[in-house]
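Lab manual, section 2.4: Encoding a predicted structure.

Procedure: take the sequence of the chain (309 residues), apply the prediction step described in section 2.3, and record the output as structure tokens. A sample record is shown.
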Amino acid sequence: MTNELYESLIEIYKSYVNEKESLIDYIDNNSNDFQSNPTLKSKKDYLKVIDSRINTLSSLLKIFENYFLSKKNEEIFFENKIDDELRDNYRREVFTKRLQILDIQEKERHRIARDLHDSTLQNLSHLVHNIELSSLYMEKDPIRARLELEVVNKKLKSVIQEMRNIIFDLRPMTFDDFGLKESFDRLVDKLKETSKISIDYNIEDIYCNNSLVLMTIFRIVEECLNNAIKHSGGTKIFFEVKKNKEDNCLIMVSDNGVSFNSKEIFSSKDSHFGLCILKERVKLLSGTMEIDSEPEYGTIVKIIVPLLD
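Recorded output:
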């Protein structure tokens, strides 16, 4: 089934490439007749659509190729004559990694469910009670009824804001509409509303055809900021996102809070959910992460992520 899907994607990819070549030939041959040829503009617009589809299919094919490569390495590994203990250790390591990913997903679902129950659902229940109360006062005490409805109005606005924050946590709409930089602006505004810590930042325009890579970069920075706000105990945070000399994405997040030993935390059996998520996301993008944390100097997190298409 997987091989058949892969072959189908290759055929679709080839058809789009051929279609792109035909479009380019048509546009080149008619470029001098732009005013008299009304279809030329539509051909150019469609060429952008074809390019987008080719980039998307290229990313999908890379995922399949990486999957096939890992499967092949696994088969070679088991075909060799190795002892049972080494084979069991390999299987255990693979199983543990899969469990970690599942654990992260379930904890994220639990967090969303808890936020909805503790804030939005409770507030909506109170709103129902206030509306019922105002309806009782409607005829006997109109002034009291109007006051109750004003309370409902304020609470309803608060619920709407809570829902916007939850939606932003799931998928910031600004990312799809305006891009990465504007999403960071919105994130910082949101964090400043809920915390007293000072946040300064510098964001350069980071370009990548694969929006999933950019979205994961956003999540990495978001996790770093949340960790610093919750655990550093500091008063200032500075972060920047830019390209380094190798055209990779460089992420730097620093705070003036208390320090910690990152090696002890990662090797500890205790759960450090935020750092585990951060480490896994960086690893999924084939990136590297360094944490420099010293007493009285705060913490600096340095992450480098390749901007692969």
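Check your result against the sample. The two ends are 26 Å apart (CA to CA).
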